[in-house]
């Protein structure tokens, strides 16, 4: 996920650190009771950002980011109000799905950051469960494949109508 610099990342020791202060070798907490080492930190610029509010928390990210919902992983640009997204509940030290209560865009030009982790590929940002650079790349490929399969495995309406017309002509 591509996040703004002030986004707080939950570290392996339970402390939080802004993503713009994360260094290679730092250990971050995974939502699934493990921790992982940061192997790369990517930096970019973005003019338009998407922000969401859920459970009193805010997450601001690039429009290219993906996020896990109760219905699967989707681009943040497809999020709808009241979609359920995965957060980390610090009281129970577990994950849960909560509804988005606000979605919007911000027109800023801040730096955005993306972490790459050694093994786990998920971490906690402002209390949200998010994916690292490899997770995003992998999920984008999965979305591309499923979109391509959907478009090639199902005939278009036009093709279905032609087939029906051909069948009717054969019966005449």
UniProtKB/TrEMBL annotation:
SUPFAM superfamilies in alphabetical order: Hedgehog/intein (Hint) domain
InterPro entries in UniProt: Hint_dom_sf, Intein_C
Name this protein carries in UniProt: Hedgehog/Intein (Hint) domain-containing protein
Lineage of source species: Bacteria, Pseudomonadati, Bacteroidota, Bacteroidia, Bacteroidales
Domain of life, per lineage: Bacteria
